[in-house]
Please model this.
Amino acid sequence: MNKLTFSRSLVALSLVLGSSAIGCGKLAANAEAIDAATEALATDGSEAVSSDDASTGALTDGSLEAVSVDPGDAADALALAPPDAADGSCRTRAKDPNDPATVIITLTNCTGRFGKHHVSGTEIVHFTKGEGPVLHADFHSENLTFDGKPASHTASADITFAEGSRTIAWQGSLQREGKNGVAVDHSSDLTIVVDTIAHCRTRNGSASTSFGDREIGTTFEDVKVCRGAGGAFGCPTGQVTHTGANGRQITVEFDGSDQATVTGPKGQTFEKDLVCSG
Model:
């Protein structure tokens, strides 16, 4: 598998906690302890992870798996990489004719990497050389839309090269309009490790997401997803924790199977099916 074809999108961890997550899971006997506030946090957590998947995976379009620390070579490889099977027909890449270290990615009604969202617009990736084995990448969107509504994405990444791996210091933000016209503002500060041999990506760090006047914090602890020989996503391992403004928490634990264990603020647990290959 070409290095750039790996992990252009992450497994849809947002499917762990859908809009009716509390009702759909396999609940323990203390199900009555799960209240409306917990269900709302579960729904917000789902949207937070979905935004992070888009920001760090889909919109970067393979840039974080750069094949060279040289900016021009990295841009060449990204522009010439074969299309991803998930949504290759809806996006094109081209070198900026005025800058050999910049790639222009055009999206036209892409859905494969964004779940139920329809995404269009332009993402511009500019590479520069850092100190030592470090490639710096800056990202910004132009005329980006989610479901026909204006959105904006900016990010920066320091990609450190080692044999068989990339370690990325990531800072990014994504703003878009959510359900019922609510403004969604997501930002994250992460360390992402890419294993280019095993075709795995691991996230650690924190994110903050606001939904109008609501805000939650999310932590990623060793959240790891790998792709098999055929390109299919395996099931994740690791843990995600969502914390609401009032201190209420939900923890989602992944063990590499096609079910996640969700623990609510009062210790109540239930399982949720994942869309992955265990």
Summary: Residues 1-32 have pLDDT under 50 and may be disordered.
